[in-house]
């Protein structure tokens, strides 16, 4: 029996919508009540999350198939009562038509599943079906990722990690690592994760995305914004949740991946971790780089806007431009403009927008600066407190010495050339000192809270 394309298309579209709108709390509770004897979502595994998504797909398949059957029966009924069969219609043709209509109205979910199982091998499959099928598969991956993150976040909030047996030694299985990379990619498509990384949401919460409202963070929430000040540290937190969802100790995974992908000792079997494995990892790197760049720019833009207004303090003032000027007073009390003032610009000059090429250049420089800052702070926060304090002290001393040497030079061009000529290590220490000083100033002189490494 032929399963029509329009039935499959309806199934793909409805399943995609249903999976993207899945509520993890309701979905896990429903699966738990029907199939498990457990006390909460902490008992769920990655396999349970996959099964939960599969249950949703099967449910939609049954609903869509039933709707299709009812529609076909209604159409057959309408066509049967709408007119008289012409005299030139033979009984054979009438029988064939009736048989075809009856067969399509009796299609079962099992028959639909049979065609779905061989769909990829069909030579003349329409592009519309291919796109719809891929959209559904992508929605399924996002849905599994959302469920895993929800389960692990619940575990963290309930402090129920002591009973878990996470892998912390041995070799990481290749296909499981590739699945982990896929989950990390999918997490960037989960709306609440994107909001968390972009810092438009203070907590990593899981509600129905359409009904989600911003909530005040709890002081006991491990993903509170006060603990993670940068997009990279927040995405690392998401990755640690996914690693635990795979059944791994997050610290162990980080060390193993560094060994496989960065250190690359001779003991690593690169016939096992082959080109296909590396290709999936490269996709993750590319998507993560883009996501972190966009998130960093968004955070910087938000921070700059907050610094230039007092709306958060009940005021209504916003800084739109700044120009430095100074003046002198003569013996008669008259103001005299100083020669150090910045030159005045005409209104036309101020309103002339930069060219498209200049906008691209500024955006590129801003992106590079944001990535450099993110990298430096990421390395700084990855160290323990003693190492971090030593690094900051060394950076402050280097900054002081460099500025003293620069100011000892007689002319400004010489000082600029001196600063440009410092080596890479000194330049990095100057950046560390500047970034840390800015953070202290923005935080009222207090160092930021650090998220504990798990």
Question: Care to describe what's here?
Answer:
- The chain is 63% helix and 1% strand.
- It folds into three domains: 5-80 and 93-144, no CATH class; 165-210 and 220-307, no CATH class; 383-442, no CATH class.
- A two-stranded antiparallel ribbon has the order 1-2.
- Strand 1 (327-329) and strand 2 (335-337) form a beta hairpin.
- The radius of gyration is 31 Å and the shape is elongated.
- It starts with a helix and ends in a 12-residue tail after the last helix.
- The chain contains 16 helices and two strands.
- It has 454 residues and is mainly alpha-helical.
List keywords for this structure.
454 residues, two-stranded antiparallel sheet, mainly alpha, 16 helices, 3 domains
Give a short summary of the structure:
The protein is 63% helix and 1% strand. The chain has helices at 5-20, 24-35, 46-81, 91-105, 109-117, 127-157, 174-187, 191-197, 231-245, 250-263, 275-307, 347-351, 356-382, 385-407, 412-420, 424-442, and strands at 327-329, 335-337.
User: How many H/I helices?
Assistant: 16
Radius of gyration over C-alpha positions, nearest whole angstrom: 31 Å
Oligomer: single chain
Task: Tell me the strand order in the biggest sheet.
Answer: 1-2
- What's the total count of β strands? 2
Rounded to the nearest angstrom, the distance between the terminal CA atoms is: 55 Å
Uncertain segments: 37-42, 84-102, 208-226, 346-350
Biggest sheet features: 2 strands, antiparallel
Class computed from helices, strands and strand pairing: mainly alpha
Strand content: under 5%
Order of helical and strand elements: HHHHHHHHHHHEEHHHHH
Q: What is the overall pLDDT average?
A: 75
């Amino acid at each position: 029996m032929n399963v029509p394309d329009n039935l499959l298309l309806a199934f793909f579209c409805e399943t995609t919508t249903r999976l993207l709108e899945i509520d993890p709390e309701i979905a896990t509770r429903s699966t738990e009540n029907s199939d498990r004897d457990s006390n909460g979502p902490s008992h769920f595994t990655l396999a349970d999350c996959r099964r939960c998504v599969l249950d949703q797909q099967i449910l939609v398949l049954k609903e869509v198939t039933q709707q299709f059957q009812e529609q076909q029966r209604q159409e057959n009924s309408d066509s049967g009562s709408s007119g008289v069969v012409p005299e030139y219609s033979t009984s054979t043709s009438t029988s064939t038509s009736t048989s075809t209509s009856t067969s399509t109205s009796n299609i079962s979910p099992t028959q639909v599943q049979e065609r779905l199982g061989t769909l990829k091998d069909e030579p003349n499959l329409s592009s519309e079906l291919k796109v719809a099928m891929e959209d559904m598969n992508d929605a399924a991956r996002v849905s599994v990722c959302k469920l895993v993150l929800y389960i692990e976040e619940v575990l963290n909030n309930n402090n129920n990690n002591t009973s878990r047996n996470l892998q912390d030694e041995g070799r990481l299985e290749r296909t499981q690592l590739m699945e982990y990379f896929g989950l990390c990619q999918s997490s960037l498509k989960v709306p609440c994760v994107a909001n968390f990384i972009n810092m438009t949401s203070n907590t990593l919460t899981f509600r129905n995305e359409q009904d989600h409202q911003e909530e005040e963070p709890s002081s006991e929430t491990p993903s509170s914004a006060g603990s993670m000040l940068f997009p990279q540290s927040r995405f690392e937190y998401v990755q640690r949740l996914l690693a635990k969802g795979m059944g791994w100790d997050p610290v162990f995974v980080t060390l193993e991946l560094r060994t496989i992908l960065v250190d690359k000792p001779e003991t690593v079997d690169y016939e096992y971790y082959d080109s296909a494995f590396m290709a999936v990892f490269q996709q993750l790197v590319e998507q993560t780089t883009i996501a972190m760049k966009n998130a960093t720019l968004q955070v910087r833009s938000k921070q700059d806007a907050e610094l230039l207004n007092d709306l958060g303090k009940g005021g209504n003032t916003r800084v739109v431009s700044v120009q430095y000027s100074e003046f002198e007073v003569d013996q008669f009390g008259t103001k005299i403009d100083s020669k150090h003032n910045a030159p005045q610009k005409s209104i036309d000059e101020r309103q002339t927008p930069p060219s498209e090429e200049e906008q691209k250049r500024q955006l590129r420089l801003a992106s590079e600066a944001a990535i450099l800052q993110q990298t430096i702070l990421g390395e700084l926060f990855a160290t323990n407190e003693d190492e971090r304090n030593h690094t900051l002290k060394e950076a402050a001393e280097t900054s002081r010495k460099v500025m003293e040497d620069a100011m000892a030079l007689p002319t400004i061009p010489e000082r600029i050339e001196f600063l440009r000529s410092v080596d890479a290590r000194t330049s990095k220490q100057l950046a560390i000192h500047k970034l840390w000083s800015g953070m202290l100033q923005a935080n009222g002189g207090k160092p930021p809270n650090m998220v504990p490494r798990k």
